[in-house]
Every structure is written in C-alpha cells, then in structure tokens.
C-alpha cells in the first residue's frame, strides 16, 4: 500500500482523490482548510456556475476533452451527482473578438470540441438575437456545485478515503497528516488560489480573477454566454440553470488581481439587467423585477500565468504532485487533469 495525502477539497482535490482511491494499492487521506458546505472567498469551487463551455484551441483542450465524457455520463446515468444536460448557446459579437474581451469565446466556428460534445452546430444568422454576429450551440452539462462536491466526498469515503481539516503552512507538512499515522509516501497539492501563499510552493504566477454572480430561483434554457458586454472589458454575461433545484447562476465579472469578497450591488444590477435582456423568458418578460434572488456571490478563479500546473517535484525530500491553477475551467478540466495526476503519482512512486 502507498499512503497518499491529497491537500485540498475543491473540485480538483476531490476528483483527484476519487480517482486515486479507486486503486486498492493507494490509501488516501484528504486534508483541507475548507470543505464542501463552506462558502469562503479562499475556496473557489462552491461559487462556480458550473458548466462545460470550452474555448478554442488553447492549452486547456486536452484536459477538457478527457473530462467531458465523464461529466456527460454522470448527467445521463447518475442523477444524485447533481449534473444535468443543458444546451449551451454561445453568442459572439465581432467587436468583442477584435478587442480581445475577457470572454472572447469561440470565434472559430470549427473548434476542436465540435466532435466531443453532441449536437454541435453553428446557429444561423436568422436565429440570432439582435446585436450578435455569430453563434454556436451544442449539448452540454451544468453542475449544481452544492450537490456535486458532497457527491464527490461521498464517493471518496465509499472508496475508503479519510478526510480531515487542517490548515498547512508548508506543503511538505502534509506528509505527516496521513490517517494511518505513518508518513505519507506522496502528497498531491490541489490548493487552488492558495498555492500562491503556501510554503514550499509560493507560486507568484497564481492570481485571483474575481467573478461576481447572482443566483436566482428563475429558470430558463438553454445556457447562454456572450462574448462581451457594453459595460466594460471585465464584465461578462452568462446564464446557467443548475440541476435539481439549484436555481440559475447569472454572471458575471472577470476582474484580474482583485481579492474583494463583498458583492458590489451596482455590479449585481448590471448582471441582472444583461441577463434579462439576452433572455427575457428568464423573468417571464417582466425584466429585472421578475427575478427572484437567492443570493449574491463572489468567487476567485485561480488563474495561473502560463497555465495550469500538473507536474511532480520533490519538496524537502517529499514527492509532491501539483494540480492547481485551473482558472475558470476547473470543473470542465477536472477529470483530464486528475487522470494525469494518477499517472504522475505512479511514476513518482516507482522512481
Ligand atoms: P478550490 O476550490 O479553491 O479548493 C482549494 C482547496 O485547497 C480548498 O479545500 C482549500 O481549503 C484547500 N487549501 C488551500 N490552501 C490550503 C492550506 N494551506 N492548507 C489546507 N488546505 C488548503 N469552472 C468550470 O469548469 N466551469 C464553470 O462554469 C466555472 N464557472 C465559474 C464561475 C465563477 C464565478 C468562478 C469564481 C469560477 C468558475 N469556474 C468554473 C472555475 C472553477 O470554479 C475553479 O477552476 C475550481 O473551482 C478550482 O478548484 P480547486 O479545487 O483547484 O480550488
């Protein structure tokens, strides 16, 4: 048996722990400062939309390609995972693509994922809402994070993993926290944004990108994301109806470098106005006053300059496999990244 400690109980840590715990040769402990059920500005995963909406050919593609089949299987076959099927509609304005707006979504009408997601199609011009120049539509999934994260915890526990709370000041300290009481053979680092502050890692390339949302009781389908807004380069417009009574998440913002945890009510008003403009049905045609707000939220995307870090290294004689820095795609790349972690764990333990 190899003793493994996974640090982090966000979607990255829990998915990695789930895959590792399927191997009877691995004895897995999850250690985290924050757990599903917590809402904290240092803990990104509960705040996400969360859906599968890839961008065009960038470094994320392979991770996302390897993730979609599992999310799709869960949506079809495992209702208790809190994932359901939803069409995804991406609306582009040429001016956003030219200006490099934060959400300059798939300008490429022939993207890599067109053969990965079912029912991929280019929306005819005649079917686009006014003001948009092109559109893409495909089958996708939307994840109710309040159900899915506890579901992952349950799957890990069912596989024999143990979970405990701890706040680490150095990644190598995790090696002494295995539930067996013996030193861990390997540590997996899934600390998200806090990888920027954790001793032994201190990754200055990881920065917060602030996303403000409004969760409403109203429901409408399909999910919609637009390439930009007229309210500034760091404001977004997206609508995601979550599974199983999770309401609909309206977004958002993309503010680089901000750690501000409090929602801004003027921003919230703009988010709701944009949502009912692009999707009047959401509020039964009544505009913003037709929305029933559950809560305002702020989450910080763990964006890493140069991309996600999935690699192994020795820190103070302890093998560490890193899996952090997933920015705004931690769910839609979760299985792809975790599968690579499993490979790296095997390589490190064999070294
Ligand atoms: P986190 O969820 O932050 O988890 C980090 C874990 O590490 C926590 O348990 C924390 O307590 C623990 N930890 C950290 N430091 C320590 C320490 N020193 N000691 C002990 N424990 C520690 N992604 C998508 O795929 N699709 C979407 O639609 C989507 N929408 C989003 C919308 C918003 C508004 C936001 C903010 C994000 C969105 N994302 C989306 C991105 C996604 O939420 C993140 O990429 C993902 O949640 C990152 O997960 P993580 O597990 O790496 O980090």
Topology of helices and strands:
Blueprint (H helix, E strand, L loop, with lengths): L1 E6 L3 H11 L4 E7 L28 H5 L2 H10 L5 E10 L1 H6 L21 E2 L11 E10 L1 H14 L3 E4 L20 E4 L16 E11 L6 E4 L8 E7 L6 E6 L1 E2 L8 H14 L14 E12 L4 E7 L2 E7 L9 H17 L1
Parallel strand pairs: 1-2, 1-7, 2-6, 3-9, 7-15
Antiparallel strand pairs: 3-5, 4-5, 8-11, 8-12, 8-13, 9-10, 10-11, 14-15
Helix pairs in contact: 1-5, 1-7
Structure, described:
By secondary structure, this protein is an alpha/beta fold. It has two domains: 2-46 and 147-206 and 305-350, NAD(P)-binding Rossmann-like Domain (Rossmann fold), CATH 3.40.50.720; 87-142 and 207-304, D-Amino Acid Oxidase, subunit A, domain 2 (D-Amino Acid Oxidase, Chain A, domain 2), CATH 3.30.9.10. The chain is 22% helix and 28% strand. The chain contains seven helices and 15 strands. It has helices at residues 11-21, 61-65, 68-77, 94-99, 145-158, 265-278, 334-350, and strands spanning 2-7, 26-32, 83-92, 121-122, 134-143, 162-165, 186-189, 206-216, 223-226, 235-241, 248-253, 255-256, 293-304, 309-315, 318-324. The strands form two sheets. Strands 3, 4, 5, 8, 9, 10, 11, 12 and 13 form a nine-stranded mixed β-sheet that branches. It has a six-stranded mixed β-sheet with strand order 6-2-1-7-15-14, with helices on one face. A hairpin with a 6-residue loop joins strand 10 (235-241) and strand 11. It is globular and about 65 Å long. The two termini are 16 Å apart. The site of flavin-adenine dinucleotide has 42 residues, from helix 1, strand 8, strand 11 and strand 13. FAD binds at residues 44-45, 191. Its cofactor is FAD. It comes from Pseudogymnoascus verrucosus.
